[in-house]
Design brief:
The strands form two sheets. Strands 8, 9, 10, 11, 12, 13, 14, 15 and 16 form a nine-stranded mixed beta sheet that branches. This protein has a seven-stranded mixed beta sheet with strand order 2-1-3-5-4-6-7. With about 290 residues, it is of the alpha+beta class. The chain has six helices and 16 strands. It has two domains: about 160 residues, Rossmann fold; about 100 residues, Bacterial fluorinating enzyme like (Elongation Factor Tu (Ef-tu), domain 3, Beta Barrel). The protein is elongated. The longest helix has 14 residues.
């Protein structure tokens, strides 16, 4: 069965996603639709890339992902053909790990790929005489492109092979001799704080040395990384590496809707800083942000 995933910044309060799914089922009734997220902040392509990075490996080969975040193409008008500051962004199809990703080339691909390379990259040139493609492009442009892929139409018949794409950045952790510095890059619906510090980053610190994770302007710290939330008592702070091997700070059985999540209880938000400080024998004990 053909799987089509949807990621957008439209939210669910309006008709947009219903119209999108209706258009898909009308033309491709056998497709299985999977929602990844429709709660991306408007135009936040880095967040969309993060969400996709965390789940695409769980999908089978041939899956097609539609990313409708900041999805309206930006096409250079003829009168601005000599304006070097104007950079068009076109609907683009990327093949990566035997899956297809359809998005406006607005930085999503660069953020998603990081330092990896796509298998294939194809630019679709919007027909400026067909204004409908520019109105709700996720439905009126991306869905028809997905249909052509599903019907095994050669990409070269309707798109141009390219090797460049725009880049939006997901900040990386900074690694020093005894410190790893990171930031909060995602807060989930429980209020758990997901950071850009990976397990590989942590393992570059001296092994078997004491360490502490300092956050919320050093008001709080954790000196042990657990395997699971339930490794600590209910209501206690906990640090762990999630299934994507990213450091996460949480409250065991804490949630925004009940006792409060880590974001509320620690007063932290996206972009706030934290660090892991190792203290091997002879090292400096206190290092500032």
């Amino acid at each position: 069965m053909q799987i089509l995933t949807l990621t957008s910044d439209t939210g669910l309060q309006d008709y947009y996603i219903a119209a999108l799914k209706g258009a898909i089922l009308k033309t491709m009734p056998e497709v299985q639709i999977v929602d990844i997220s429709h709660s991306i902040q408007p135009f936040d392509v880095a967040s969309a890339a993060f969400q996709m990075q965390c789940c695409y490996k769980d999908f089978p080969d041939g899956t097609i992902h539609l990313i409708g975040v900041d999805s309206e193409p930006l096409i250079q008008p003829p009168e601005y053909s000599d304006a070097s500051s104007f950079v068009s962004s076109y609907p683009t199809v990327m093949k990566f790990h035997n899956q297809y990703f359809i998005s406006n080339d607005n930085g999503f691909f660069g953020a998603f790929l990081d330092d990896q390379e796509p298998e294939e990259l194809w630019r679709y040139t919007v027909d400026l005489n067909n204004a409908l493609e520019l109105k709700y492009p996720m439905k009126n442009c991306f869905v028809p492109l997905a249909k052509r892929i599903i019907e095994k139409e050669n990409l070269e018949t309707f798109a141009e092979a390219v090797n460049k794409y725009k880049k939006a950045l997901i900040p990386k952790a900074v690694i020093e001799e005894y410190i790893v510095r990171g930031i909060i890059i995602h807060i989930d619906s429980f209020g758990n704080l997901i950071t850009n510090i990976s397990k590989a980053d942590f393992e570059r610190l001296p092994q078997d040395a004491p360490y502490s994770i300092k956050f919320a302007n050093e008001k709080y710290y954790i000196d042990h990384i657990s395997e699971t939330y339930n490794a600590v008592q209910q209501g206690e702070r906990v640090a762990l590496f999630n299934e994507n091997n990213l450091l996460e700070i949480a409250i065991n059985r804490g949630a925004r809707q009940s006792t409060g999540g880590a974001d509320i209880l620690f007063g932290m938000k996206l972009g706030d800083r934290l660090r892991i400080e190792s203290s091997p024998a002879g090292s400096r004990k206190t290092l500032l942000f």
